[in-house]
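quick one before i forget lol
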Amino acid sequence: MEFIIISGMSGAGKSSAAAFLEDLGFYCVDNMPVALISSFAGLCMAGAGTGKYSRVALVTDIRGGQTFDELFQVLEDLREMNLSYQLLFIEAADEDIIRRYKETRHNHPLARQGYPLPVAVKLERLALEPVRRRADHILNSTGLNLSKFRGELLRMFGMGSPSETMVVSVTSFGFKYGIPIDADLVFDVRFLPNPYYIAELKECTGLEEAVRSFLFGYRQTTEFLRHLEELFSFLLPQYVEEGKSSLVIAIGCTGGHHRSVAIAHAVTEVLRQKGYHVEESHRDISR
């Protein structure tokens, strides 16, 4: 079981880190009281065999108290339970944290005790120094935009090869029913020869060999697929490097029965051969 404990400075990005790890398949809990960690870990170990709790991440920080003796005792308890864990500490420069609090208008946890924000940040940094020294990983989010922040987490905790950490959804659709609202990349294949006008192919779909043979019998179809493969060979690694966890590729024709279905199926096979985790769907094939 993979077990990650996230701690660090308030406003540095701990909740954002948990949200991204959730995208990577972790079961995540934010703001867990230290006293519950051992019991929670035991429950996760008991359920790890089912696969549901094979990857777990939790956030614990100064919201649960200003001293961390109890946390260190819990870490020893986890070792006695033979649970291998990783402690991730997230920090940022004082100026960045203060700016983020000013922009979001959230209250710093120590502000409730009457400390001005700059003083609260400095006091928290001092209180967290023992935790920082125990950390297996330290991530400084100063100056990082969200994509680069996610990219750093992907480098630390990504599963398998980089390409496997991003789910690619390839879907076909019919323009007459509208473009899928969640599409990241949209390709129009209405320029290809239309099997709809071939009597014996009209009632078929692009998943059937007769339609695919018809379409790929044309030079423009094979050239288009070759250009798509070249484009994806460049684009997808860039998305992975930026920390994107999912990408939707939508391929459309007029009705979503023939051309878009066949091309979406072919693209799925190409991307799987490149090692990506690909999900294939055909939105309008039954309309």
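fyi The radius of gyration is 25 Å.
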